[in-house]
Amino acid sequence: MAEVANDLYRTVERTVGGLGYQLVDLERLGGGLLRVTLDGAHGIGLEDCERVSRQLSHLLAVEQVEYQRLEVSSPGLDRRLKRAEDFARFVGKEINVQLYAPSAAAGGRKRFRGRLLQLVGSDSERRLQLQLNTEEALASEKRMARRGPKLRAHAEVPAVLVEITLAEIDKARLVPELDFRPARKAGAIEMGNAGSLGANSHEP
């Protein structure tokens, strides 16, 4: 995946923001594909994707940006988190995190999964506080005490909290929350916005 120039990212972000949406991600992929991922206060539907696609097609032509295909879509269940406001919005959710370098706070690991407890610190150094899930807590405990006494059962493993700065994070995504409960009876179904599930995309 090729990097997107900062100037192009900011230009697309301003355009998308002017239409009332949030730019989640902008990626250059193989085959000349330029992928734009959007979010909105009420989710993203096909009409939203088409509206943004038309506007961006005009913008990219004016700016003489080289690409073969433009794809505009909603973020999906495993939404990427990049900005401080993204993390603040999803406090309480479980996330996957990949760091640029191993973290001593996470047992010398680069990848881990946990529940986002809060976002703290000043604008110059915002930090995430995560509570690692049972499997992640066990992994960290093993790395920190490889020569110590054997670990007890999962249920007795104490909660492991880690704190990392946003600057340390290479990639972060929501862990999809899937509902496997039986469907409700006819007449009692609550309709939701399908666009918020990342099912919609549009290519001009």
Summarize the structure.
Helices cover 23% and strands 30% of the residues. It has 204 residues and is an alpha+beta fold.
Describe the structure.
Helices cover 23% and strands 30% of the residues. It has four helices and nine strands, in the order αββαβαβββαβββ. It has 204 residues and is α+β, with helices and mostly antiparallel strands.
Features:
204 residues; alpha+beta; 5-stranded antiparallel beta sheet; 4-stranded mixed beta sheet; 9 strands
Helix % is: 10-25%
Q: Please trace the helix and strand order, writing H or E for each element.
A: HEEHEHEEEHEEE
Which percent band covers the strand fraction? 25-35%
Mean pLDDT: 80
Within the largest sheet, what's the order of strands? 7-6-5-4-8
Topology:
Elements (H helix, E strand, L loop, with lengths): L5 H13 L3 E8 L3 E7 L6 H17 L6 E5 L10 H6 L4 E10 L5 E12 L6 E6 L1 H11 L15 E6 L3 E6 L26 E2 L2
Parallel strand pairs: 2-3
Antiparallel strand pairs: 1-2, 3-9, 4-5, 4-8, 5-6, 6-7
